[in-house]
């Protein structure tokens, strides 16, 4: 075996010395790093401040509407459905003009004006006031009508709520007006003309069919009852 030369021996000792020096210089730093790591692992972190307990939020849930079924045994004619629905919806019969004004003050009757898909014509024998829920249904009917036609189309409401005094006065002038108690005196009925559309008095069979289709769907959903009054050229609608 060949012996290493002097130069190789000197080079080996130099490298060994440098390595030993580097290790000796690094060991204290390594010890310090290990010490810091151990301290961080063993020392428990400072407890965080406890969050204050939040008070529960009270959410007002809407009242569930219960629609009573219309008993077939009590119905002798189509209009009886409207009277039954009116009697079992809302606040009861409007007894007088003073009672009517009090209902407005108590916000049990609300004003209806032109909305999306409908307008209220100038009324002479009724007041443009209905119950809040009836207004919701009227607005849904208007939106449904525009959905089947276009955003500019609207139908016309020709009659809304009547007080007993108005009903008697109309009865003297119009023999076709209901005698006795009318569903219009409960704040839940209104008439939709099928010959007054988009602000003009004209007959449109396609538009009439669309109104009737919407009313039938709402009736199936137990939202309304309606009847076609040919002499008045309107659909009489009562909200359930």
From TrEMBL:
Keyword Signal: yes
Domain of life of the organism encoding this protein: Bacteria
Stretch forming the signal peptide: 1-22
Keywords, sorted A to Z: Signal
Name of the molecule in the record: Uncharacterized protein
């Amino acid at each position: 075996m060949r012996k290493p030369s002097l130069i190789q021996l000197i080079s080996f000792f130099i490298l060994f010395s440098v390595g030993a020096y580097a290790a000796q210089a690094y060991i204290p730093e390594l010890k310090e790093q290990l010490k810091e790591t151990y301290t961080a692992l063993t020392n428990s972190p400072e407890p965080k401040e406890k969050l204050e307990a939040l008070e529960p939020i009270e959410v007002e849930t809407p009242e569930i509407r219960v629609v009573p079924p219309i008993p077939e045994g009590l119905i002798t004619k189509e209009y009886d459905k409207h009277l039954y629905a009116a009697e079992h919806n809302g606040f009861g019969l409007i007894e007088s003009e003073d009672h009517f004004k009090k209902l407005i003050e108590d916000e049990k009757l609300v004003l209806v004006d032109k909305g999306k898909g409908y307008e209220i014509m100038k009324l002479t024998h009724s007041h443009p006031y209905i119950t809040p829920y009836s207004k919701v249904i009227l607005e849904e009917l208007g939106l449904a009508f525009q959905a089947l036609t276009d955003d500019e189309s609207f139908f016309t409401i020709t009659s809304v709520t009547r007080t007993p005094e108005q009903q008697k006065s109309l009865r003297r002038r119009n023999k076709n007006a209901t005698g006795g108690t009318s569903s219009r005196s409960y704040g839940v009925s209104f008439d939709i003309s099928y010959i007054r559309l988009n602000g003009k008095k004209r007959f449109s069979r396609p538009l009439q069919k669309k109104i009737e289709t919407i009313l039938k769907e709402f009736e199936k959903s137990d939202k309304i009852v309606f009847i076609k009054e040919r002499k008045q050229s309107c659909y009489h609608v009562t909200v359930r």
